[in-house]
Amino acid sequence: MSVKLLYFAWVREKTGLGEETVDLPGDVKTITDLIDWLKARGPEFVSAFEQSDVIRTAIDQTHVPHDAAIANAREIAFFPPVTGG
Amino acid sequence: MSVKLLYFAWVREKTGLGEETVDLPGDVKTITDLIDWLKARGPEFVSAFEQSDVIRTAIDQTHVPHDAAIANAREIAFFPPVTGG
Amino acid sequence: MIRVQQENFDIGAEIERLRDNRTDIGAIVSFTGTVRDTAQGAPITEMTLEHYPGMTEKELERIEAEANERWPLQESLIIHRYGPMKPGENIVLVVTASPHRQAAFEAAEFLMDFLKTNAPFWKKEDGPEGGDWVDARESDDDALKRWETPEKAAE
Amino acid sequence: MIRVQQENFDIGAEIERLRDNRTDIGAIVSFTGTVRDTAQGAPITEMTLEHYPGMTEKELERIEAEANERWPLQESLIIHRYGPMKPGENIVLVVTASPHRQAAFEAAEFLMDFLKTNAPFWKKEDGPEGGDWVDARESDDDALKRWETPEKAAE
Fold first, then answer.
1. Which residue of chain D has the CA closest to C34?
2. How confident is the model at residue D41 (pLDDT cuts 50, 70, 90)?
3. Phi and psi (nearest 5°) for D32?
4. Nearest to C23 among D15, D32, D87 (CB)
């Protein structure tokens, strides 16, 4: 499954990527699975997702918890807690 | 004792007076006494102070309850509950 | 600062004057009360605000001082108009500035709640059927109760 | 209405555009968030807001719709800037209009509380010592709790 991943704020700075499109293996079913899969890709991902509890996620631009199913997501974003306003 | 009396809103319309200066007899010691004294002056005052519980009072431009002592007041105002804002 | 005036005011200009290009403010709240074209379903063609010159200024200053004692405000402003006004016109403006948003919001609400129940203004509404003095609303007295401190409540 | 933009905004002009000479409004509340020149005592020379284009607009629209469902608003507006800003500049503007003041106040506070915890913006503050991402504040999460409805709280 091909999906667009986006990284914001210090998650973007740590991964060194603003966005990328990846092909996910079939056993990556939830956000937690996806984070584990990303961490296996290299030290920059290990660093970005070190405190994975802190990382917030959105699927197709809607906030979701880490146990959310990826299903047919087109766009998945990772970011720190928001600090606008 | 000479004191300036002020009337506002419908109290003013009912008494027919915006302000006046009166000489009060010595036995008029509280706002309640003053209201009774005013009511004895004529039907327009009876009408204005008919529901005297509703009337608010200020002595020298500070809100006071009806049992407040008049003491050395220079200015006493009578008005309905306020409705600004 | 407080102002009691017959003329209209410009909300944006008042906010900009109050913030005065400062860089230490974090939150600015404004409240504007305006004349509505109906009251209890009846049309209003004009509204007139009577007030008690002298006492009005004293009460507004007292209320503003109390807000500044309760919240860490950097600036505060109350402008209240009197005289005749048409529907849609501004009646009152309250502006508060603080490093944090909660203080600015709470202080603005406090100022309005106290003003509504303590500042000596009286509204007379004119419609096709004639003029009528506006009755005080119980909800305004209720709004005041939430600001009672333990000592004040015991009085 | 919501707007996400890099340019500054004029608070007064936005309020006047929103009220649009209407005569049925009774209360207008505005909240403006501004860049402060210090953070935890350290000086700030510039602040940059990163955001998630697309999701930002969706979240702000969702939050605005929720406020309009909870309160009888006649108009509402959220403007949020992104990009680099200097101390003293405007960041965010929320305006609400309603026949009554309590609805206007509550809705404006609600919009700010939800925006602070849900809209995908991230602040980076630059000072003489370098840049740092701003940490989310627990007080913002706490502020959200007071808006929980019985059903939502049970979730």
1. D26
2. confident
3. -120, 125
4. D87
| A16: phi then psi, degrees, rounded to nearest 5 | 80, 10
Could you read off the pLDDT of C44-89 as tens digits, one per residue?
Answer: 999 999 999 999 999 999 999 999 999 999 999 999 999 999 999 9
**Looking at residue B11, what DSSP letter applies?**
H
CATH of domain D2-149: 3.90.1170.40
The answer to whether the CB atoms of D31 and C99 lie below 8 A apart is: no
User: pLDDT value at position C153?
Assistant: 53
DSSP notation for D22-46 = -SS--EEEEEEEE--SEETTEE-SE
The CA–CA distances, whole Å, from C67 to C8, C45, D111 equal 25, 35, 24
Helix residue ranges, H only, chain D: 11-19, 55-70, 101-118, 138-145, 150-154
Using alpha carbons, select from D45, D49, D17 the residue that is nearest to residue D33.
D49
Strands A2-7 and A75-79: parallel
Q: Write the class of the CATH domain A2-79.
A: alpha beta
d(CA C145, CA C147): 5
Does C51 reach chain B within 8 Å, measured CB to CB?
Answer: yes
Can you tell me the ipTM of this complex? 0.94
A10 touches chain D (CB under 8 A): yes
Residue D119 to residue A82, Cβ atoms within 8 A: yes
> What ranges do the domains of chain C cover?
2-149
Q: Is the pLDDT of residue C152 over 80?
A: no
Q: Which chains touch D (3 or more CB pairs under 8 A)?
A: A, C
Q: Which amino acid is at D47?
A: M
Is residue A58 within 8 Å of residue A64, measured between CB atoms?
yes
Going through C6-120 in order, the beta strands assigned E by DSSP cover 27-34, 38-39, 42-43, 46-51, 75-81, 83-85, 90-98
Separation CA C91–CA C122 (nearest Å): 12
Alpha helices in chain B (DSSP H): 9-15, 31-39, 43-48
Q: How many residues does chain C have?
A: 155
Residues in contact with C3: Cβ distance below 8 Å, sequence separation at least 6, in sequence order: C77, C78, C79, C80
C136–B81 C-beta distance less than 8 A = yes
Confirm or reject contact between D19 and chain A (CB < 8 A). Answer: no
Is the CB of B19 inside 8 Å of chain C's CB atoms? Answer: no
